[in-house]
């Protein structure tokens, strides 16, 4: 059995100037976006310049775009894990992760479009069974749950391999694999059949 060696920390901490510039640019954009989100939450829909003539802003267009990205990523992963096209397995886990992230981003855009975003939970608690939007919200919750479970099953073998690492990734892997920390032919069979 191969032993794990500690990587050289000094070589990991060196970042190229282009990477530092990229991270700095992303942080500046994140700060600008955060300012406008806070402004939207504090001042309400007045900042959006929406009216009864134009009731939907760009948020709904982004919502539709990200739902489409999520569905496309899920279909790509279905080719691999449902229809057995294992030649594409290298991108299967990333497709599932992209589907989850895109769905969360899509619903965040809808949350930002609401006049009172703090009331979003009301659609879950006070379910109006004749409302199409209430059904849509519940189906999205089921869809995201399905994506997360499928991603966990797809990544379980990788998580077990990361368990021995003595870094943050190893701690997360130990937390997510619970007590069953072995991968054998029997557990692979249980995962694929179950």
Return residue spans where pLDDT drops below 50 for at least 5 consecutive residues.
189-194
Report the biggest beta sheet as strand number plus sense, adding barrel if it closes: none
* Fraction of helical residues: 55-70%
Please report the total strand number as a whole number: 0
> What do the pLDDT scores average to?
80
Structural class: mainly alpha
Global Rg: 21 Å
How far the N terminus sits from the C terminus, by CA atoms, comes to 30 Å
Give me the strand/helix succession.
HHHHHHHH
From the spread of the alpha carbons, the general shape counts as: globular
Q: Give the DSSP E fraction (strand runs of 2 or more residues).
A: under 5%
Query: What's the number of helices?
Result: 8
What does it look like?
This protein is an all-alpha fold and 194 residues long. The protein has helices spanning 9-12, 17-43, 58-81, 92-113, 122-125, 132-162, 168-177, 185-193. Helix 4 runs antiparallel to helix 6.
Secondary-structure topology with pairs:
Elements: H1 9-12, H2 17-43, H3 58-81, H4 92-113, H5 122-125, H6 132-162, H7 168-177, H8 185-193
Helix pairs in contact: 3-4, 4-6, 6-7
Structure at a glance:
This protein has helices at 9-12, 17-43, 58-81, 92-113, 122-125, 132-162, 168-177, 185-193. With 194 residues, it is mostly helical.
